[in-house]
């Protein structure tokens, strides 16, 4: 259990897996290059720490101590294990009753719909859980809702929810089967579904770290005092590797499930009831994984039992998922992404002037103030801006950019001069985009401004990293460039 505690300490908050609940996002925006993550020392630090814990867990598992730990976990979870099917069915049914009561969503608070009849489909799915004869109908209903959501959301976005939905649907079909050989895989299908869902969604922290920036500003306690650019990649590694751990040997997967359950629960209070509804299903499946007494390995048992299989398996999973994520994004949106993709805000929190984020924040903050974390006075929120005000705001961004950019380009080293000049140049573009979001009304321009902010901020971060690697302390802001 010490290993479980250590894992829990290592994994800060993968509970905000679908950051799109908390921040604005443009699915079609080009992701940060994977090379940026591969060059991040904190990413590799987190990978090495997790590998050490997994290998240590496997060493314990292969010893008599490991069998004792598993036996203790069996005794602790035995009442639940004996009624695990009832538990899963009640939770699945309860989840669909909850989103039926919430209304206006397909399968999660992130996937909104104005169609009232969709809620009644959810109610029928919940009713079908009560009988083994109708469980396959409920499974078909889950798949139907996912397909229905394709009308309003593109396929790449919905990949976040495919694995978990298919996992639950597969469980319902297998649990209803009279064939024992088929039924014995029902919990494994659930485990694979939640594992893939966690690993896939964790990649957002590497592809779009800027989506998480407003969340970190609003709730700084989530980082446990770590710098933002240390915390986000390590949290991404934690979520990915714990998802990977759910596919491994009994002790690894059960301890991974315990760690994930603690982390997900820790997020419920600060993020509220909507977060509980959205994550209830995945949390319940994690409980089922922790309570699963099964020792048999059905897939690649020899590799999973080998110590060398841990790094080999994790490396393979990383290659497959990153290739799939970045490759599919290019296939859907092209190498440069789609700047005009529709920006969407799926926020589960009430807008707060003290902790602004999202398009609404951009509309209520002056140029540059979002960057500094300063809210506009309440009276300014109700004022209608004039053309002159917008022009003055644009001029202010240019005036703030020009001096630092020219000063940076005077550096004697042309490579360093280029980067020191480009950082305030990019910050000026970001500030201009924020002026557009405050005063502009054209949907296409606003979408482009959102895209530009995300893209330029990512490039600023990359340039600042380059300066550090070359022994130059980067400016803390555009105004500090020298």
UniProtKB/TrEMBL annotation:
Q: Where are the transmembrane segments?
A: 41-60, 87-108, 137-153, 159-177, 230-248, 255-271, 277-294, 306-328
Q: Where is the DUF305 domain?
A: 381-467
Which InterPro entries does the record associate with it? DUF305_CopM-like (IPR005183), Ferritin-like (IPR012347)
Keywords associated with the record? Membrane, Transmembrane, Transmembrane helix
Classification via Pfam families:
DUF305 (PF03713)
Q: Which residues form a coiled coil?
A: none
What is the name attached to this protein's record? DUF305 domain-containing protein
Which source organism does the UniProt entry give?
Plantimonas leprariae
């Amino acid at each position: 259990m010490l290993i479980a505690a250590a894992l829990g300490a290592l994994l800060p908050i993968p509970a905000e897996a679908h950051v799109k609940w908390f921040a604005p996002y443009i699915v079609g925006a080009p992701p940060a290059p994977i090379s940026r993550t591969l060059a991040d020392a904190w990413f590799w630090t987190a990978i090495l720490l997790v590998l050490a814990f997994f290998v240590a867990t496997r060493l314990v598992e292969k010893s008599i101590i490991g069998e004792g730990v598993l036996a203790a976990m069996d005794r602790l979870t035995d009442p639940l294990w004996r009624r695990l099917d009832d538990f899963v069915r009640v939770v699945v049914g309860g989840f669909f009753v909850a989103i039926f009561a919430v209304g206006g969503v397909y399968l999660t608070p992130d996937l909104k719909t104005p169609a009232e009849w969709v809620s009644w489909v959810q109610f029928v799915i919940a009713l079908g859980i009560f009988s083994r004869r109708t469980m396959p109908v409920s499974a078909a209903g889950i798949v139907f809702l996912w397909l229905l959501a394709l009308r309003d959301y593109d396929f790449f976005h919905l990949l976040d929810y495919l694995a978990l939905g298919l996992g639950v649907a597969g469980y319902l079909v297998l649990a209803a089967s009279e064939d024992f050989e088929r039924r014995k895989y029902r919990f494994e299908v659930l485990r694979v579904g939640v594992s893939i869902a966690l690993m896939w969604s964790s990649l957002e922290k590497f592809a779009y770290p800027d989506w998480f920036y407003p969340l970190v500003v609003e709730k700084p306690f989530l980082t446990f005092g770590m710098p933002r650019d240390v915390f986000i990649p390590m949290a991404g590694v934690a979520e990915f590797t714990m998802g990977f751990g759910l596919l491994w040997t009994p002790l690894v997967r059960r301890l991974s499930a315990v760690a994930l359950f603690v982390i997900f629960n820790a997020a419920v209070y600060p993020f509220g009831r909507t977060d509980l509804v959205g994550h209830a299903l995945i949390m319940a499946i994690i409980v089922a994984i922790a309570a699963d007494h099964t020792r048999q390995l059905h897939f690649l048992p020899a590799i999973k039992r080998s110590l060398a299989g841990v790094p080999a398996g994790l490396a393979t999973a990383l290659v497959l998922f990153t290739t799939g994520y970045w490759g599919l994004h290019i296939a859907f949106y092209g190498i440069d992404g789609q700047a005009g993709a529709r920006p969407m805000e799926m926020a589960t929190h009430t807008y707060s002037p003290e902790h602004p984020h999202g398009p609404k924040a951009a509309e209520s903050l002056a140029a540059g103030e979002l960057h500094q974390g300063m809210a506009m006075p309440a009276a300014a929120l109700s004022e209608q801006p004039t053309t002159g005000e917008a022009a003055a705001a644009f001029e202010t961004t240019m005036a703030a950019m020009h001096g630092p950019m020219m000063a940076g380009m005077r550096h004697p080293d042309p490579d360093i001069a280029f980067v020191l000049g480009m950082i305030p140049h990019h910050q000026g573009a970001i500030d201009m985009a924020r002026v557009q979001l405050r005063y502009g009304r054209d949907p296409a321009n606003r979408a482009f401004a959102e895209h530009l902010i995300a893209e330029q901020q990512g490039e600023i971060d990359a340039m600042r990293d380059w300066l550090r690697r070359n022994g130059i302390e980067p400016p803390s802001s555009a105004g500090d460039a020298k």
